[in-house]
Amino acid sequence: MAIVESVGKIPLQDPPEEEFSASDLTWTKFGTAEHHDVVALIPYDRVDAFIIGECSNVECPTRFHIERGRKRTIGSLKEYKDDEYLEYRLYWCSFGPENYGEGGGILPSRRYRLNTRNRAARPQSMRGCTCHFVVKRLYARPSLALIIYNERRHINKSGFICHGPLDRDAIGPGAKRIPYICNEIQQQTMSMIYLGIPEENILEKHIEGIQRYCGSDAKVSSLASQYVHKLGMIIKRSTHELDLDDQASIRMWIERNRKSVFFHQDTSESDPFILGIQTEWQLQQMIRFGHRSVVATDSSFGVKRLKYPLFTLLVFDSRQHALPVAWVITRSFAKPDVSKWLKALIDRARSVEPGWKVSGFLIDDAAAEIDLLRDIFCCPVLFSLWRVRRSWLRNIVKKCCNVEVQREVFKRLGTIVYSIWGGTNTSHALEQFMLDFVDQTAFMDYFKTSWLPKLEMWLSTMRNFQLASQESSGALEAYHVKLKAKLFDDSHLGALQRVDWLVHKLTTELHSSYWLDRYADESDSFQNVKEKYILSTSWHRALLIPDYAVTLDDREHLFAKVVSQRDSSLTHLVWNPGSEFAFCDCSWSMQGNLCKHVVKVNMICENLKGYQPSMSFRSFEEVLMDLWRKPVDDSFALDLSLACTHQMLDQIQKLVELNNSTDIGTVVNNMPLKWVSKKGRTYIGKPSSSLALPHGSSSTKSVVVHKKNRKRKRLSRLR
User: Fold this and answer.
1) Handedness of CA 252, 255, 261, 264 (dihedral sign)
2) Is pLDDT above 80 for 102?
3) Of 194, 200, 224, 229, which Cα lies nearest the Cα of 212?
4) Model-level pTM?
């Protein structure tokens, strides 16, 4: 095979198959006689098809993960070679590069060891596979990708096949006829066991997963049945106590689960205890759903009942449900301590996706270090009312006996919150509120002790920051309710003061629950799990209520009636409709939750006259009005205000157009072109200008246009 020294001499290949692998390509030696790589050149938009084809290797079925990645922007290089990258990604077989199988001991990848009479079973995760390749999106020709295959064989450092049907020791003694159980099948099986699904159903799904790799076989069914039964027994008998001492136990867990810990600081005289947990799957979800989107927090969970409070970072998935992507266990929320683990978390995400960026950060605690969040994430900060609303409503129902009093107290508190934009004297309104309900001693004692000293801080945060919508608030509350149900079960009350128990519950039951929810939704399997997951938030439950089931009080707008969808003879009464502080008499609302009836009524009221707008819309309106009112004369401040306002409105219009459009190509074609200055010459030639085609274009390849003596070049806005 001859060695070529220029990318231009490498033939471009585009196999006709929908999915293709390395065996379908002709490989070329690229480089010099002393150092060269085996490469192939394909269209960049066929990279995913190549990766899927490589994952479907019959001899070694696997998946590839991004081990490292880097990006450049067009125009960042003044001089470059023809093989310089615009995007660089190193894909590694998911059975490597680490090898946790040496010695056959208890492994960080799993918390158990199968007790067979023969030697220990091989581990159920990393096997030290060295198969990996690099995908370079070429800087000079962005429509093309250069694939550099460093190691095509699925072998370990010793040169032996380490997974798949050809690995005779894949699962253990006598298991040479079936392939290795991949992480996805194992996680699926473990999740079903944790959720209490019957063993017969678990075995059926487990066998279906294995048969995707090795076909139907009686031996497969027999060994799979043994595996599921043993795994179920191991999980049932497993314990969180690796040591009687809690600190020693958590150190052992950290040592065995290094890949799931992104930050750890042990207790000392000067430093508090901090443990940041994020599994590889959570990292993938944070990169996927957090990029150019909103990241939220559920802060200070279990302050009174847990040994260390729990802080959760969440993203909103494809259905806008809150998905936990990191847990931080600590008692300290001081600025230096928060800065440590936040930077470690962001560095971890950007080590995989260098361009990862957040568009907004949603908090639920007015005492949060807002300046720190702005500095680290470089994005706007939003505030959610769900924690305030939930705390007030729960204590009103608990401490006020009369239903009419409960309605009026909740409405008056809502009026005080709504008055933050009206110029009303908050102190006077609070004094009048406490005088009017002075006979409600139990609630007033709670309110004066827990809220009155810090209420001005909370109202100031609501006034100064954009408020979150009901949908996102409902999603955060749904996560909080699920977390509380998992952790504060009566059977675990004796373990609440142990950190190892909390870590065990988070990384097993709760993690498995969310993993199975996402898997069921994306694979369209486990229909019962999928339906329950979709309807886990009050927003999605409200969408199932038809408009005709809601009747409004047209005269005084005091209440609304919602007919129950389960029992048409039952009607729920919603007082103070159109407000975030609406009061419903259903059992879910009486527990302090945002119920579907309130959400549905507010959906209808937002489009009707006579009802006040939502607080999220009101705060957004105040931002725009503040920009409009800011200039006091015909000065530069007016220019700046108009520029900011028009930029914001332009972005909103484009988002609305994109959301309502059924054809992305039409939206792209209507976008104006962006002009950039011409860069200097290089020793190869002038940087080429590339005009990106819309995704829906009939042409399958991007066009690279070489021009001479042009002072400017045009790039698509999507670049």
Assistant:
1) positive
2) no
3) 224
4) 0.68
